[in-house]
Amino acid sequence: xxxxxxxxxxxxxxxxxxxxxxxxxxxxxxxxxxxxxxxxxxxxxxxxxxxxxxxxxxxxxxxxxxxxxxxxxxxxxxxxxxxxxxxxxxxxxxxxxxxxxxxxxxxxxxxxxxxxxxxxxxxxxxxxxxxxxxxxxxxxxxxxxxxxxxxxxxxxxxxxxxxxxxxxxxxxxxxxxxxxxxxxxxxxxxxxxxxxxxxxxxxxxxxxxxxxxxxxxxxxxxxxxxxxxxxxxxxxxxxxxxxxxxxxxxxxxxxxxxxxxxxxxxxxxxxxxxxxxxxxxxxxxxxxxxxxxxxxxxxxxxxxxxxxxxxxxxxxxxxxxxxxxxxxxxxxxxxxxxxxxxxxxxxxxxxxxxxxxxxxxxxxxxxxxxxxxxxxxxxxxxxxxxxxxxxxxxxxxxxxxxxxxxxxxxxxxxxxxxxxxxxxxxxxxxxxxxxxxxxxxxxxxxxxxxxxxxxxxxxxxxxxxxxxxxxxxxxxxxxxxxxxxxxxxxxxxxxxxxxxxxxxxxxxxxxxxxxxxxxxxxxxxxxxxxxxxxxxxxxxxxxxxxxxxxxxxxxxxxxxxxxxxxxxxxxxxxxxxxxxxxxxxxxxxxxxxxxxxxxxxxxxxxxxxxxxxxxxxxxxxxxxxxxxxxxxxxxxxxxxxxxxxxxxxxxxxxxxxxxxxxxxxxxxxxxxxxxxxxxxxxxxxxxxxxxxxxxxxxxxxxxxxxxxxxxxxxxxxxxxxxxxxxxxxxxxxxxxxxxxxxxxxxxxxxxxxxxxxxxxxxxxxxxxxxxxxxxxxxxxxxxxxxxxxxxxxxxxxxxxxxxxxxxxxxxxxxxxxxxxxxxxxxxxxxxxxxxxxxxxxxxxxxxxxxxxxxxxxxxxxxxxxxxxxxxxxxxxxxxxxxxxxxxxxxxxxxxxxxxxxxxxxxxxxxxxxxxxxxxxxxxxxxxxxxxxxxxxxxxxxxxxxxxxxxxxxxxxxxxxxxxxxxxxxxxxxxxxxxxxxxxxxxxxxxxxxxxxxxxxxxxxxxxxxxxxxxxxxxxxxxxxxxxxxxxxxxxxxxxxxxxxxxxxx
Amino acid sequence: xxxxxxxxxxxxxxxxxxxxxxxxxxxxxxxxxxxxxxxxxxxxxxxxxxxxxxxxxxxxxxxxxxxxxxxxxxxxxxxxxxxxxxxxxxxxxxxxxxxxxxxxxxxxxxxxxxxxxxxxxxxxxxxxxxxxxxxxxxxxxxxxxxxxxxxxxxxxxxxxxxxxxxxxxxxxxxxxxxxxxxxxxxxxxxxxxxxxxxxxxxxxxxxxxxxxxxxxxxxxxxxxxxxxxxxxxxxxxxxxxxxxxxxxxxxxxxxxxxxxxxxxxxxxxxxxxxxxxxxxxxxxxxxxxxxxxxxxxxxxxxxxxxxxxxxxxxxxxxxxxxxxxxxxxxxxxxxxxxxxxxxxxxxxxxxxxxxxxxxxxxxxxxxxxxxxxxxxxxxxxxxxxxxxxxxxxxxxxxxxxxxxxxxxxxxxxxxxxxxxxxxxxxxxxxxxxxxxxxxxxxxxxxxx
Lengths: 1049, 448
Hints:
By secondary structure, chain A is mainly beta. Chain A is 6% helix and 49% strand.
């Protein structure tokens, strides 16, 4: 007899979801089966074979108190009612069906409510099914009345309820990998509930023959809750279901539903109000680098959402996860490859009320702009000297003072800049559009299972922002206090149009050799380009010339960011070694940021028309960043039984990661030199072949005012190179003391080294002007106690030490100024890492499938947190370690199906979560003689920390009509965006209320219509400062409408 | 089976960019820790040698040298330059004298000390090299009394300035010319010709020319340094800038703007962040001749006379402001108006001629947007002894060969009155007459 299933007693508690999502039934098979058809594999593709053919099934326990006669499930009996979906017959042998691509079927699998209605009088059979050895509820256990169509499944609590006409029945309870049972003589009276609680025993001897696999169906929402329920750490999980139901849109919009989460810029997940600094991002466990050198977190949209099975947001550390986070570790999981041929295509169009069909700024077009390859045409021509800066004063001979470049050479270089065109034009913004394609399948060569999935995604979106910038000064003194000077020092208003083109490709190959061994290959390539055209008009007191002048600052920028990620991983189980599991991966990732041909100019109008302000104009900057990260890890999991026979686990592993980064910038300036006339007027294309010359003085017949001059800044401000390595090892124990009390804990050792030094292509071997070296060797303990007073309730107490390390950019002295007159940002090589002590207490209750009620309190102590601060003079922002900071917070979460109001309301559900965080940072008081210690407010929250975060959603899901509707709301409390110095107040971002709507409607088999409205309230994004909330920055994104169609077969 | 054929295609679609990405990776970011050994001054002096890095012991330059990169004098060292010595700066070079150290550059009228471009004459231009940065120990009005020199490494304590010793000295600049300066450090941040960061009154400045600067000619951030006999010519931005609590005074100042370039002759601010910061910037300028860009024609430049902003207090005596394209005086921000209303802004015995040529002289006095402050009343008050629309009749305004000594017929003669504490001067302007023209011989007006 062949028994195929997907369960190991080692992870008994997780078996439920296998049943829930995978529909793997372990029942008697008529005889040997081959591996054809949708069968033979569990969700993770492992073949389960029961070699002990003919093993007597009679060791089913017969509780003595049981009145009715029980029979083993394996006993021949009439088949139950006809299978509804046809995918998984209950009793005709073993089968596995992957429902992950079929939300409806999955829903049916999960929903205990799909029952045949009883006409006329009825009574109920209700009860609960538990695992006999662990006491955990079993989810998705089939409960059927033999010989009838009445059947149901247990819910997430292991509970079921079955309406039947009054009578006496034989009830069969069956579950794969467990010994089923049939209970005879169950009498049901009219309007009475007959209790029928049972415990199922794992099939004896399965330990050797059944793999630990598919711990749960990772893709179903209910499965995710199970995972969360069982997880050793407090984590929140969004599933593919969630992603899909929000209209198939961006994962980040869905992420808002996670407790304490804010989504910043539609792309980044912030948890508990802690910003970029306190998160890390892993893809299937491997480090995913951020394509943005200023950030640690990774925008979620670089991975096609169709390729993800889940996004886990882990809030408390466990030893097996890299410890460099304090807010959350965002763990992206790739999905399973489809069991049968999957072909899915989707397309969408969109419009934004602030952008589409309105006037937009535009620069000149380059080939490939719509394909993210516009950076190539903007790059410096290969004819440019790379050995030395190109400038008229570059000397060939120091003694004679003869210049290196002839006028003709200078003119040629100047005129061969990729585009001299700095003018900004206007056009009408076209609608947004995007498309995606997914293809996947599985073959079964040589008895193995080889599956693949490839996903391609393309999006082209325009966004115009109308922006206001203000920079203020104060008046007053220590006695009378300080107030804002009403006339701002900088007052700019402007438009910024950004065309974002994003393209990504993904390939997943998952190869299961047999039930014990599996290999996975992941390849991701994502490119993302922002083509930005910005105009700012107004006055900047110290930049924009005369008081009477109006200034115009223009900037054209094209930033291409790419990430190439490859990962090869495997998982091996050794049943002969006590179920020892080994999983490993090696990964290589390259992130590039190519920001060529940033063109900025400043024009002033004294009342007689605009004329270029030459010192601030004609700048062409070329930024290049390459970051290579390699990481690898190996984990060993050894299941064992503790003294009471309860399943326990011991896990050890190692992690290695190295990274090399190089970043440099070339700044070429077209400047007026030796020209005694006026530069050209107007704001048009003033830099062109007629105005760019070779430094021939006017008095020598020169007619062209501009000449190329490269700016090389001192002290290593033009680039940096960095290396980083982390070697880590850990050991942890998952040890249940009793069925209701479990300890998960261990320690992680991390050896970390980080160096940053300046880099200049012109003097690659120069003595570095500075050198940042961070070295830490940390033993980072973490542990949690999990009490389960009821099987559907947990109380967790967790503590962990983690670390937050500065980014390389923050350690470098590279200087960037956002706009002339604005703040420059420069790193600080003296930064040190922040050590964070975290404590969490969490109570969670899972009253029903897809329902949760949770409350937690947490405390975080930051030793030397890094903050962005403002130097008094010059106007510069840099980074500093504060003394310490403390965050104390409360989180509440409720997700509820509305069926408790009325059974008809069961398609509706509601979720609310709320986080309150009290944060205080301790900084050194203003220190005489220290220009960087002049911060204004001594009592304030940590930079970037919101005092509260609220998320809510309202959902309607009807399987019958194939409709999913979501209404999502998010807001957050005022948070500091810039820490004020020199008596200037802190700059706060005001709360934004966001309301998004998503509708997904099945139109026809496989054809779905999506309609999304984002940012319906169109709240202004506003930064303010001072007691009167004086404006610092304001913009408004507009409301976006997206209409999409997807078809899958 | 169609899918089978599709697979390699998709695989290629994914793999190809990966290959490309890796293929063009690693832009030659070589790492090397070997430092190139560069001379710092010390030991035997080798003439015309290139100087780079740090000077941390007392050093004397008796002959010419070439500055390479930012040369920093620190560790209380004293750098002395002998008369007649020419120091040439390579592009990107600057001479920075940190707090406690001093630059002693005392030339003579016949043998001035010249800091200039390393390029040959005729090839030179603004911004060829950085300039001179002097960091001092006197007070400024920053909150913690300390700042970091613009454009230099903000995290390097060597580049901090400000303290409590108002009598301290950054050294001595006498008969010194600084030319073709002002390379750009950051966006809108070029080095000035000579920057006095909180230099105390012990600093000696007499006979100093800054010529063809890409940014300001001379800038004072706090401090109490006093100076006499300054010539600022061809500054592309402001000729004299003071900020952050500068309270010194300058007498005999000649400013001539390039007809095609130039911003304010004087840009005076109290402090950008806190307009009421103390000590308040309150310089005194006595005997000034400031010539704008509109001498022969009204070119559309950003040129203007004096900007008073951000709560500054200032006094001008015996000053000529002529031929500015923009206003003669701008006064902005309420804090500055308050100071002015309290008598903190004075223009006495001064002459204004042919300014605001942009609108044929309609707006010589400008206040902030929306302000009703009576700046005209302040300046035109009869008690000030000021002269309006009177041609000062100076020798020559030729930018390549200026001669701003008043002619014999000039109305400025005898019209001035220097306040006490300054050299007696009964004339308006920097120079008494042709015979008393102190700008002759040691200056240079070559434009390249």
